[in-house]
Amino acid sequence: RREPLALINLKKKNEETGEEELASRLDHCKAKATRHIFLIRHSQYNLDGRADKDRTLTPLGREQAELTGHRLASLGLKFDQIIHSSMTRATETTEIISKHLPGVKKISTDLLREGAPIEPDPPVSHWKPEAVQYYEDGARIEAAFRNFIHRADAKQEEDSYEIFVCHANVIRYIVCRSLQFPPEGWLRMSLNNGSITHLVIRPNGRVALRTLGDTGFMPPDKITRT
């Protein structure tokens, strides 16, 4: 519902100018810029922590975040913002990454918190959350997708580069939804800690996946998937 025809009221079409006015109004609603979305999975964290506040980054996780931050900075792009999950491991990853990108504003959101987006197909034996989780988490993660992943606003004049620091389940679900693949297949993908997934959203709404879970910038002994 973000294509130009969905953004104007066709009932208000002027009878005299007709198609000419319609074309003008459509042009006014068309996106002009491309959005570059960088989805970053948080770094390795303490799996023994019971509460979220105890699930802090490990020393290796902090190294991974430094490497990811350095990689993002080396791209030479003018990043507009960093939006991150409010969970501890994502917040700490963001703080480290942001040191390499001074001046880029940070925004925390609960929408990007980890969860169970949709029942995976095929199912797996080692991970079986309660059915209620799919209803609660799934609605929230779908809301995150609709809120953050879309073509540029018609008022946006220049291409934008945005970073989202969140979690594996969220990223995998967003990738499936963005590419219009069956979202139930999200668990067929695997993402390393600190990895970079790059989506490009063109003005016409077409989406391309440039990279998925890239950690080629990390030494092999620093790569984990916990």
From TrEMBL:
GO-annotated molecular function: protein serine/threonine phosphatase activity
GO cellular component: mitochondrial outer membrane
Gene3D superfamilies linked to this entry: Phosphoglycerate mutase-like
Record localization: Mitochondrion outer membrane
Catalytic activity: O-phospho-L-threonyl-[protein] + H2O = L-threonyl-[protein] + phosphate; O-phospho-L-seryl-[protein] + H2O = L-seryl-[protein] + phosphate
Matches recorded under Pfam families: His_Phos_1
Enzyme class, broadest EC rank: hydrolase
EC numbers on record: 3.1.3.16
Example GO biological process: programmed cell death
Keyword entries, A-Z: Hydrolase, Membrane, Mitochondrion, Mitochondrion outer membrane, Necrosis
Family the UniProt entry places it in: Belongs to the phosphoglycerate mutase family. BPG-dependent PGAM subfamily.
PANTHER family per UniProt: PHOSPHOGLYCERATE MUTASE-RELATED (PTHR20935), SERINE_THREONINE-PROTEIN PHOSPHATASE PGAM5, MITOCHONDRIAL (PTHR20935:SF0)
Protein name: Serine/threonine-protein phosphatase PGAM5, mitochondrial
Organism in which the protein naturally occurs: Pelecanoides urinatrix
Gene name of this polypeptide: Pgam5
